[in-house]
Amino acid sequence: MGRKATLATCSLNQWALDFEGNLERILKSVEIAKAHGAKYRLGPELEICGYGCADHFYESDTLLHSFQVLRKLLESPVTQDIICDVGMPIMHHNVRYNCRVLFLNRKILLIRPKMLMANYGVYRELRWFSPWKQLRQVEEYFLPRIIQEVTGQDTVPFGDCVLSTKDTCIGTEICAELWNPRSPHIQMGLDGVEIFTNSSASHHELRKADLRVDLVRSATIKSGGIYLYANQRGCDGDRVYYDGCAMVAINGDVVAQGAQFSLNDVEVITATLDLEDVRSYRGEICQPNMNEIEPKPCHRVKVDFSLSSGDDICLPTHQPIPAHFHSPEEEISLGPACWLWDYLRRSGQAGFLLPLSGGVDSSSTACIVHSMCVLLCQAVEDGNSQVLEDVRRVVVDDSYRPQHPRELCGRIFTTCYMASENSSEDTCSRAKGLASQIGSTHMNINIDMAVKGILGIFSVCTGKWPQFRVGGSHRENLALQNVQARVRMVLAYLLAQLGLWARGKPGGLLVLGSANVDESLTGYFTKYDCSSADINPIGGISKTDLKSFLAYCVEQFQLTALRGILSAPPTAELEPLQDGQVSQTDEADMGLTYSELSVIGRLRKISKCGPFSMFCKLIHTWRDALSPAEVAEKVKHFFRMYSMNRHKMTTVTPSYHAESYSPDDNRFDLRPFLYNTRWTWQFRSIDNQVA
Fold it and tell me: Among residues 200, 357, 363, 662, which one is catalytic?
């Protein structure tokens, strides 16, 4: 009958500038799509070069190598008899565009540049690309010689156009265009386009996946149609993790959905759908509106090719399925674990080292590494040859096959408890207990000798010996805490560089950090202490979410040692003990609870609040617990701490981006690092309201 089309979309773990690997993964996805009978294959945004090239997009090499890969794709027998939709940067009239290139049987059908750019949050696309602003207009693009030699074409259509096959019409959206109030699919649908495609590089944030699915569903529930969503997966060399979740929807129903988190470098999702279902849906729901199109219809590029066949009456179609979402605790367990694995296998290092204090934060980092080992063992058991090859390369053993997460953890994960005279037996015991349960190679060392040596040098230079809070000033007390913290950082890097050498093994270790997003927000950490590491898997996660995650790990991984860690008050253990017990707690030091910091952090970043606006909101949010005067003091205290310590964010360890109120100074939260910490005008405005 010629009405059923099999379509393929995918999630690929592309790596910025890894042209060889990116080509292999694209070809593998096309091969899988064809094996499932697909006649159209959609890939992620900028999949040829990788989305995260950043300022490498300025380089002519990036454009050249992208075209070289495109030539390989055009020449490959794998890409024959299927419409391939790939992403790459292209220069047209000396302007750089983020483009989709659609080709079939060694011929380029059209090039569609991105029209609505992502230029918010972690995205800075306008730095490297220009949007195509000529609605419904198409120009001739002169192909470079290396492509002309393959296709025999001099020019191809370039611009805002759609592809018209013999049996349907396909229109393109690129990532942020779906999230825009002027999404192209709206007018394309009214002009008769039946299949919408979206190629994305959409990153993971906690509690975001349902928004993405809702947008895909709503794109087709209003005016009908089929929607294919492709996304990048993995860490392509930066702080974000692209979380896959490729999907296919029709008339508001999801019919196929890929994994959000996975160690598979290539995942292809296919669906067979009846084109007549779109026409029937529109015939009833949208009939009065279908003629209300803009004066200029979509420019259609015709191709002599069908997505359906003439004998498809017995071909079953995909039916609606419930969309699957992970809980926030599962997201923390899976997302940062996959990100860590990508970083480890691509960095060429032999494992991780973590200063394990026995507190919630470092224990959370340890549990994420353990979760990574669980995922690796499961992938090997499921027959993932790429994971097995990568594991063997990391442990430098071509015959190795992981048998159990604890055993693998012992090979690639070293934990170290760095005690001082201010450390308690409780935290030491908790760290040792957790290390034993996850299987890490664990060390207990004492840093007092190093601390006293440094203070001795200071004493020789100055003739002074600083004292803690009892007997000394606040300045002395803080300096003594910082010395301990910084000694731990120096020892962590020494152990990471030479720890395996001392055990007669090759390679070095990546140092993991464990400062959470709330501590980064207030600057409640020592600059160049153990928060200074190579990477930090929890730097974008709140203390509240980390506690929930550890409670999840108790049940999911049977890590009973976490119960004692969860019940203990968070403490830095940098001041002297009192009668053998901890006298210092994090929340007392900060003057704010972690739950209060989460609220303040969201108001500062997401709601764009300065001191006065924040006060105006919090007097209502906290009215049952605090008076306006108490709210004012907390707001002013936070902004004093925040502005005083903002300079620390310029050197903070690269962290997994998981929270929309992250204070990461790299490119997400751009602010000064030298403030007037008195906030004179702002605080006076608050005081006037309190009075």
Answer: 357
